[in-house]
Structures are given as structure tokens and as C-alpha cells.
Write a structure and sequence with these properties.
Blueprint lengths: L1 H17 L2 E9 L10 E4 L4 E4 L5 E7 L4 E5 L6 E5 L5 E5 L11 H13 L1 H10 L10 E5 L12 E3 L2
Parallel strand pairs: 1-7
Antiparallel strand pairs: 1-4, 2-3, 2-5, 5-6, 6-8, 8-9
InterPro entries: CarboxyPept-like_regulatory
Protein name: Carboxypeptidase-like regulatory domain-containing protein
Organism: Carboxylicivirga linearis
């Protein structure tokens, strides 16, 4: 009888924990601060959770255990963000996907990193123009290098 009571209590507790979600909302723009429509928002396993509307805005329910999101759109670099605790408003600037012909991966990474480092400044500008509702992002974003020789090295991290 005790075992049955313990098992039923554990099942009820696990159902309650697995059913908890939080509401995430925000908008997505490009480096020119133009809204990007229909961006796919996926979990780290690339399962689509939500999609931004025509104005680049979104609102969806996210399980509490989900910490990383992957954003994708044609012509834009895939963006991986790691949510901080209490982060419910996500304003994201996606980087344009550029083709770097006739230069090394090291040179391409150098140019991409220069653009990546400007993202916090662009975020602040978007806030000042009334595009974003947050002054600083409440997530971490990692610069992912193209250069295969450096992939084993620790990636650069920023709160872009």
C-alpha cells in the first residue's frame, strides 16, 4: 500500500513539473534594423517551436527546461541564443549571411566577428528607436567560427 502511494505521488509530481511553461515574446530584426518575417524558432534539436509573424514578432509557450533556441531564416546566419533565468522578452538581431569569395576562412571569420561585436550597439540603437522593448539582451549569444582549425578552441561568448 505504501509503495502504491509513493508511486502515485511521484507520478503526480512529475506530471506537474513537465507541464510547466513560460511565455516568451519579442521581435527579430536584421543588421539594418528591418523586421524579418516568418523566422523559424526551434529548440536545440531543430524542432520548430514557433514562427515569427510577418512583422518579425512572436509569442509562444516554452517548456521551463529549454535554455537554448535556434533561429533560422533564408539569407541569414543561424542564430543560437542561450536564455537567462527570468528572460521572457527576446529581442534579436540576426546577421546577414554573406558569401566570402576568394578569401580564407580565417579572414571571413575576422570580418564576421567585427560585425558580431557591433550587435550590442545595434541592440541599444534599436531600443532608442523604439523597435526593441529591452535596452540590453537577456540572453547569451556565441560567435561560431567558420575556421575549422579553431572550432576546437573555446568559442567567443557575448551578451549581444
Amino acid at each position: 500500500m505504501r509503495i502504491l502511494l509513493i508511486i502515485s505521488t511521484l507520478v503526480i509530481i512529475s506530471l506537474d513539473i513537465n507541464g510547466q511553461t513560460r511565455t516568451i515574446h519579442g521581435q527579430i530584426v536584421d543588421e539594418d534594423l528591418q523586421y524579418i518575417p516568418m523566422v523559424s524558432i526551434c529548440n536545440i534539436d531543430t524542432v520548430e517551436i514557433a514562427k515569427a509573424n510577418i512583422d518579425g514578432q512572436f509569442k509562444f509557450e516554452l517548456p521551463l527546461g529549454t535554455k537554448k533556441l535556434l533561429l533560422s531564416f533564408v539569407g541569414m546566419e543561424w542564430t543560437t541564443i542561450e536564455l537567462k533565468d527570468g528572460c521572457d522578452t527576446i529581442d534579436v538581431i540576426m546577421m546577414n549571411e554573406w558569401i566570402y569569395d576568394f578569401i580564407s576562412l580565417k579572414s571571413a571569420d575576422r570580418k564576421r566577428l567585427k560585425r558580431f561585436k557591433k550587435l550590442p550597439e545595434l541592440h541599444k540603437l534599436a531600443y532608442e528607436k523604439g523597435i526593441f522593448t529591452t535596452l540590453t539582451p537577456c540572453y547569451d549569444r556565441v560567435f561560431e567560427e567558420y575556421n575549422s582549425k579553431k572550432r576546437n578552441r573555446k568559442n567567443r561568448k557575448t551578451s549581444s
